[in-house]
Amino acid sequence: MNVVEESAAGSRPVRRSAMRTISGVLRGNSTLGLLFAVAAFALALIVRFEVGRILPSGFPYITFFPAIILTTFLAGTRPGVLCAALSGIASWYFFITPLRSFALDGPAATALCFFLFIAAVDIALIHYMELSRERLSEQRSVSSSLYEQQRAMFAELQHRVANNMSFVSSLLSLEQRRVAADPASAVAVMEEAQRRITVMSRVHRRLYRPEAVEMSLEKYFCDLCEDLREGSGAGNVHFDVDMDPVRLDIGKMMTLSLLVTEIVTNSLKHGVAEQPSSQIGVMLRDLGPAGLELTVRDSGPGFPDDHEERAGHGLGSRIARGFAAQLGGQLAYSNEDGAVTRLVFPRPQPTAET
Q1: Beta strand pairing call for 278-286 and 237-243
Q2: Hey, CA dihedral for 336, 341, 344, 350, is it positive or negative?
Q3: Tell me, what DSSP letter sits at residue 115?
Q4: Are the beta carbons of 277 and 238 closer than 8 angstroms?
Q5: Alpha-carbon distances of 274 from 152, 192, 278, 301, rounded to whole Å
Q6: Please, are residues 259 and 284 in contact by the beta-carbon 8 Å criterion?
Q7: For the chain (length 354 residues), average pLDDT per consecutive 10?
């Protein structure tokens, strides 16, 4: 008994799938839909002639209504209307008295009006039912897409939080070594660590806001630079952000954001802090197959002559080089009417999700 029930239950999805396939073919090809309507009418007419021998009078439409309903359900509204029109004409001519005539008296007119009303109601109900089914299918598709997007973002969020916690742990370890080497710098070291963690928190919140999905890269970094200016109190600095419309995944965006934050913060502290009016430019260029080029320049005095040597010992420089390595590039420094930091890194490979 259970086997029979399971078999019957298992066959229902197969039948539904077959019906949807047939309906999809008929609705997708208007010619096939109209031919199906003609075939359904012809079959209904033949069956009506056959059963007419055993039916009492007064049932002219008994085989035509099922044909109209089936045609509308499978092939759509237009084929359903065609089947209804052919069925009405045939019923009028063959099965409504006077037979084999298009004479229209009172009873005939009443019968035809009854047929038209029932056929119109059937077609309209099926039509609006199909519209409701399509809307429901679209809503399910949207819901499924949103669910997959949220699931992917949640997984990425977990991964990014884990990476950030690892970064914070490494940062504190580096700061601990600095304190151990120079205990008098403990307060300054802790303040610097707190600043970096606060900036990372801001970047994290900004990246995972819902509107960040649709925000352009240039607008995102304009807001980020504005945060850095407000946080540093450098009201004398003007930012010029110019970025090509490049798509980056959240992981690359997080790393690039932290790298830009580190470089810009260094410029705010050492490059332009003493100037009454200064400028910092942040640019991202699409180099095609060569990858992407990030350029951060300021209008300050430039790097000192021993910058390359000092950069190997400074914590900020080591952190910046680490972010550059995560992006797959290496930082280059130069003086061009101010300090210029460049990074060329590979273009992110598109994934199945993007």
Answers
A1: parallel
A2: negative
A3: H
A4: yes
A5: 45, 20, 9, 10
A6: no
A7: 47 63 83 92 91 77 91 91 93 86 84 90 91 87 80 66 65 71 76 72 68 75 83 76 87 85 81 71 92 90 70 69 89 88 83 43
What is the spatial distance between Cα 13 and Cα 97, in angstroms, rounded to a whole number?
45
According to the model, what pLDDT value does residue 354 have?
40
Cβ-contact 301, 271 below 8 angstroms: yes
Judged on CB neighbours under 10 Å (0-12, 13-18, 19+), 108 is: middle
Quote the tokens at residue 179.
Answer: 């304190």
Beta strand spans in the chain (E): 237-243, 278-286, 292-298, 331-335, 339-345
Long-range contact pairs involving 190-199 (C-beta distance under 8 Å, separation at least 24)? 192/315, 195/231, 195/265, 196/171, 196/319, 197/168, 197/171, 198/231, 199/228, 199/231, 199/258, 199/261, 199/265
* C-alpha angle 298-194-213 in degrees, rounded to nearest 5: 65
Side chain identity at residue 211, one-letter code: E
d(CA 2, CA 113): 50
Q: Which of 16, 110, 96 is nearest to 62 (CA)?
A: 96
What are the tokens at 61? 């439409």
Instruction: State the pLDDT at residue 240.
Output: 92
Supply the pTM of this predicted model: 0.49
Classify 301 as helix, strand or coil: coil
- Helices and strands of the chain, counted as H and E runs: 10, 5
Residue 354 has which token pair? Answer: 């993007």
Residue 278, classed as helix, strand or coil, is: strand
- Is the distance from CB of 160 to CB of 250 less than 8 angstroms? yes
- Residues making up the chain, counted from first to last: 354
Tokens for 305?
């002559």
Predicted confidence at residue 35, as pLDDT, reads 94
Burial class (CB in 10 A: 0-12, 13-18, 19+), 88: buried
Q: What is the set of domains in the chain, with CATH numbers?
A: 2-142 (no CATH), 221-354 (3.30.565.10)
Of 56, 49, 55, 44, nearest to 115 (Cα)?
44
